[in-house]
Amino acid sequence: MKPADAGIAGTVDGGRLLEWIDKVAYAAAAQWSGHYCVTAYVGNIHLDRPIAVGELVELHANVVHTGRTSMHILVSVYSSDPTRQKPVQSAQCLTIFVAVDDQRETVAVPQWEPTTALSLQWHRQAQSRVLVRKQIEDAMAAQSYTAAGTAPSATLRFLAAPSDINWGGKVHGGRTMGWIDDAAYVCGADWAGDRVITSYFGGIRFYRPIVIGHIVEVTARLIHTGPRSMHVSVHVTSTDTVSDEPAMAAHGLAVVVAVDESGKPRPVPQWTPVSEEDRTLAAHAQHLIELRSRVEPFTAADEVPADVEPSYFRAPSPR
Q: What is the pTM of this model?
C-alpha cells in the first residue's frame, strides 16, 4: 500500500479496495469461463479493519457457485504489516459476473462443483444468499427517490474519462464502485461534519455499461442514521453528450461511519425524516438491515490459501 492508495481518512478507502476486488474477481471469472465477463452484482461486503499505508495486501478470488451464464466469485482480502508473517483477513466480498461473447450476448459457462470441505461450505453459503439477494434487489428497486425527499444529499457530475476504461472498452465496474464510495463519503461527511470511512457496501447492482465520454452523475442520499453510522443510497446515471435522457447505470447502498482524529467511531447527528418519502426510505433502510441479518457469513479461511502462487505472506523456504 502506497501513500497514493490512501483516502482522506489516511487509510485505504472502500472505493479503492472495491476496484481491486473487481479486478481480481474479473480475472477469476474470465479464467473459468474462457470469455469476457461483466460485473452484474456486488453484495454484502464488510470492511472488517482499515488497511494502512505500508501494509502488504493480497486478494484471492474463488469460484463458489455457477449458474447457466453467471459465476459467483468470493474475494478474500488479507493484509498485514510486512514485518509480520501472519496476515489478517480484512474483508470478504461476493461478486457475480456474467460471461458474454464478442457481440456482448450472454453465453453458458462450465459448471463448477466443490471439491474440498471449505469450498463445499462456500458453495452452500453462496446458494443460501440467492433468495435474500433477490429480496434485497426487489426492495431497493421498489423505492422512489424524488424531489419530495428532504434528506441531505450530494451529487458528483463529470465525464467518463479514457483512464476509466476496462478491457472491453467500457468503464469497469470497480471504477463505478469507487464513484459510489466517493459520493457516499461526501454525503456522509457533510452530515457528520467530520471525516467518515465506509464500513459496508451492499446491493450494488449494475444495469448498463457506461461509455467513455458519457456524462456521469452520482447522487447519494442519506436515508437512515444510527448512533455512529449513516446509511447512504447511491444512484449512478450516465448520459450521452448528444442526448438529454439519463439512464440508470448502477445503484447501491453504503454505510459510512464518522471517525475522530484517532480513527475511532464517534456519534453522528440523528436525522429525522420529514416527508412521507423520507419516512418510507428510512423504513426501507431498517428493512435492509433486517434482510442482511439473515445472510450467513462466508466461512473465513484459517490463513492465506497455500495452494495459490504467488503468496507474498508465505515465508521463504530455508536454504
A: 0.87
